[in-house]
Amino acid sequence: MVKMGIVAYDNCYLSSLSGPMDSFQVANAYNCRQSGSDDATFEWNTVSITGKPVKTSGGISIATDMSIANTCEFDVIYLPAFPYQGALAMDDMAKELQPLLDWLVSCWKRGTTIVTICTGSFLLAETGLLNGREATTTWWLEKQFHKRYPQVKLNGREMITEQDRLMCAGAMTSYQNMSIHLIERYATADLAIQCAKAMLIDTSARAQSPYQNLLMDEASGDPVVAKAQHWLQNHAKENIDQAELAIKMGVSQRTLIRRFKAELDLTPLSYLQNIRIETAKQLLENTTLPIIEVTERVGYADISSFSRLFKQRTELTPAAYRQRFKTKETLNV
User: Fold this and answer.
1) Closest listed residue to residue 127, CA positions, set 102, 108, 106
2) What is the predicted pLDDT for the residue at 216?
3) What are the pLDDT digits (tens) for 246-297?
């Protein structure tokens, strides 16, 4: 039997707290049916700092089984996610949850595996345990995470990372993928597949990259960079030379590249490529245009080179991306 501690704290997401418990309940039911035994594979208790009920982000109060001062030894501790509200709010939250963070460190040192998802990776990083180790978090907070925890080897492309008994998963509903991962790890691959099928969990989704908006939060406070961004967005189909772009912006090419890197951690060419890829995504999702025409509409003449770039940024070919994300309206065309 795998003994699990499910951590609850004020303002955590209800679904990320209760979802894994539902998954483990399904795993127990399947395993008991197949083995003819009443012995559960997974056993869990909810744990909070004080042992008192906590109020989740949606306002629903959840009773907990025990406090961190009265817990038994767990094989696995699971830490749910929360609504991220900025760096200052994160400072306050870390101070409020310091007893919980200290408890996580002590449990890990005794051999417990610590598991989290989405913004829960921020809390796990606050313990210092992730320093020098690989981790992931929700893709849209990748920059904020990297800025706050520069010693963590952040891999925002992955759905799940694991190193030294520390597991992290990506955005909000990745608790489903993490639950299946844990069922496979602590039970069997066959049981994990059965549970995934029963709960309609897509186990083929192993990366966050296909879901990422490459242009999200790319607005710049640098007037030169902002002007160049606007120009590139309106001329994305054209053949653009970085030297000519610099002249249009009234700066040297070296200065333009340096300022882009400082503001966006991208070159102007990489930013242009992101514009083209995001435009292509919209066309693939919402139209039935042949891929060669999509390629031409976003400014590429060679479909093979565009497909390579598209797969490099999204982990999917244009055809596979369309198959996964095409809209209902597109299906009916």
Assistant:
1) 102
2) 77
3) 999 999 999 999 999 988 888 999 999 999 999 999 999 999 999 999 999 9
Q: Where are the domains of the chain?
A: 2-211, 223-331
As given in the structure block, the two tokens for residue 129 are: 């345990």
Superfamily of domain 223-331: Homeodomain-like (1.10.10.60)
What does the alpha-carbon distance between residue 95 and residue 100 come to, in Å, rounded to a whole number? 10
Pair 220, 230: CB distance under 8 Å: no
- Classify domain 2-211 at the CATH class level: alpha beta
Q: Which residues contact 136 (CB under 8 A, 6 or more apart)?
A: 121, 154, 155, 156, 157, 158, 159, 160, 161, 168, 169, 170, 208
**In the chain, pLDDT over 90 holds for what percent of residues?**
84
Distance CA 8, CA 246 (A): 52
Structure tokens at 227: 């002007």
